[in-house]
Amino acid sequence: MALIQTNKLSKSFSSGGAQQHVLKNLDLEIYEGDFTVIMGPSGAGKSTLLYALSGMDKPTLGSIQFFGTEISKLSNDQLAVFRRKHCGFVFQQMFLLDNMSIIDNVLAAGLLVSKDRKAIVARAKELLTQVGLTEQIWRKFPTQLSGGEAQRAAIVRALVNRPKVVFADEPTGALNSASGTAALDTLTKVNENGQSVIAVTHDLKTARRGNRVLYIQDGVIGGVCDLGKYVSKDKARQEKLIAFLNEMGW
Amino acid sequence: MNKIILLANANIRKAKGQTAILAALFLISSMMLNIGLTVMLSFGSFFDRTAEELNASDTYFAIPEAFYSDEMDRYFQSESTEFQKNSGIVAGVSYEWKSEMLNNDYITISNKDEARELSQWKLVGNSIPETPDAIYLPYTYNVVGGYNLGDPFIITKNGQTFAFTVAGYIENVFFDNMGLPETFFVPDARFQALAETFPENRKVLVYANGIEYVTKAEAALKDMSPPSIYGDDASFLFSTDYSTVKTNRTSMASMMSAMLIIFTVVIVLVCLLVIRFRISNSIEEDIANIGSLQSIGYTSRQVTLSMMTQYGVIALLTCLAGILPAYLALPFVGDVFAQQSGLYWEAGFEPVINLAAAVSLTLVVIATAFIAALKIRKISPVQALRGGIMTHSFKKNHIPLEKSNMPLTLALSCKSVLQGAKQSLTMLVILTAVSFTAVIAILLYYNSAVDLSTFEKVPGIERANAGLVFKHGEDTEALQAEVLAHKDVYKAHYQENSSTVVDDMDVGMIVTEDYAARETQNVYQGIFPRYDNEIAIAGLLADILGKEIGDEVLVGREQRPFLITGFTQGMESGSLTVYLTFDGIRTINPEFAETTLMIYLNKGTDAAVFAAEMETRYAGRTHAVIDGDASFAEGVSSFASIISLVGLAIVIVAGFVIILVLYFVIGSAVIRRRRELGIQKAIGYTTGNLMNQITLCFALPLTLGAVAGCFLGAVGMNPLMSVGMSPLGVMRADYLIPMSWIIATGIVMVVLSYLTSMLITWRIRKISAYALVTE
Question: What DSSP state is assigned to residue B369?
Answer without folding.
Answer: H
